[in-house]
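Final report, closing paragraph on structural work. Over the funding period we assembled a curated collection of sequence-structure pairs, and we close with a single example.
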Amino acid sequence: MSLSEKSIMAKTKATNLSSVRHLNCWGSRISDVSVLKKLPNVEVITLSTNHIETLRPFAQCLQLKELFLRKNKIADINEIAYLMDLPALSVLWLSGNPMSTYENYRATVIKALPRLTKLDNIEITPEERKASEASGSDVVMPVVAAEGKDEDEDDGQDNASDEEDTTQSTKSADVTLQAVELLLQTLDKAALQSVIQSAHQLLQDM
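Its predicted structure, as stored:
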């Protein structure tokens, strides 16, 4: 299920998407939140208990301060990289996602997002922040599978187009040959000898 502009307007009672500051769609079976790129001023998002698998759409919410996403389906710890350029993000809740079972989950998130003050409803102490610099893993931007899929589809379409062109050329050649054969059948002996001489000369010139 996709989060739509219509549902956002209904939930927030906002007059336009740019005016949305708080969004709460908890437990709505949502998997696609790509519409979030149209919320440039949103500050608090609550989308816990849904079916979200990636943090990529949140990367464009540059005013975001608090993000609640517990009990979703985010598996890759590297998804955290999408939140690294959010300057105001201070509260994050990701417990209940598959990524939270990662061995160094908490330290890795704190290391990647040094401006956080609270993670999974637990305050981040100065001591924990310092320790995370050594114990946390570095995250990298995930490879977007959809892009690779598009390229494969384009290659497949190009190959199909080439095959179609080859087939059409073969068919055209067959039709031309049949027309020549029919024409030859209408010629007398003298005309046929003239055609043979012309064809022989063309073969020598090739």
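Strands lie at 22-24, 44-46, 66-68, 91-93, 118-119, 122-123. Confidence is low (pLDDT under 50) at residues 146-155. We thank the funder for supporting this effort.
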